[in-house]
Write a structure and sequence with these properties.
This protein is α+β, with helices and mostly antiparallel strands and 158 residues long. It has a domain at 34-139: Immunoglobulin-like. Helices cover 13% and strands 33% of the residues. The chain is built from 1 helix and 9 strands. A 4-stranded antiparallel sheet has the order 3-4-9-8, with no helix packed on it. A hairpin with a 2-residue loop joins strand 5 and strand 6. The chain is extended and about 80 Å long. The termini are far apart. The mean pLDDT is 81.
Length: 158
């Protein structure tokens, strides 16, 4: 038998207030900081752009090590995940400020065009992971040559 609980409008207002606080914090106070998913997993900020031949994804991963990053391409989906570990040589009590985030991170992106995932390449420099993925041949622009032919009324055109 299900439990019957009394509606608590104050509790709903507190939850709404917390959500609004997070919205303003993320939008105006610290817009470029990492977001958390369900309060546990970090979501790194990314830039995605495309050229005629490839999709380029740049993810800010300051403090991460290349060997702690895993990249998976499935269909048109790119998954970047890993973990950033805190410096354990410093006691927690000795910190005056500790604002950098540590822990597991993941970012899943649905890419805008079909890609050749098996030809993806990644590099890591100055805290930025760059993933380059070639576009599938059928989505790349190609020139179509125009040749002289017959017009609709049967006469040749120049």
């Amino acid at each position: 038998m299900p439990n019957i609980t009394r509606f608590d409008p104050l509790g709903e207002m507190v939850t709404l207030r917390q959500a609004m606080d997070r919205l303003f914090e993320d939008s105006f106070v610290n817009p470029l900081t990492w977001r958390t998913v369900n309060g546990t997993q970090l979501t790194p900020p990314v830039d995605v752009h495309q050229t005629e031949d490839e999709i380029v994804v740049s993810a800010a991963l300051p403090g991460a090590k290349p060997e702690e990053v895993e990249i998976t391409v499935t269909g048109q989906t790119l998954l970047i995940r890993g973990e950033m570990k805190a410096d354990e040589t410093i006691d927690r009590e000795k910190y005056v400020y500790r604002e950098r985030r540590y822990g597991s991170f993941a970012r899943q992106l649905e890419l805008p065009v079909r890609i050749q995932g098996e030809k993806a390449a990644a590099s890591f420099s100055d805290g930025v992971l760059t993933v380059r993925i070639p576009k599938a041949e059928e989505v790349k622009p190609r020139q179509i040559r125009v040749s002289a032919g017959t017009s609709h009324n049967g006469s040749e055109s120049a």
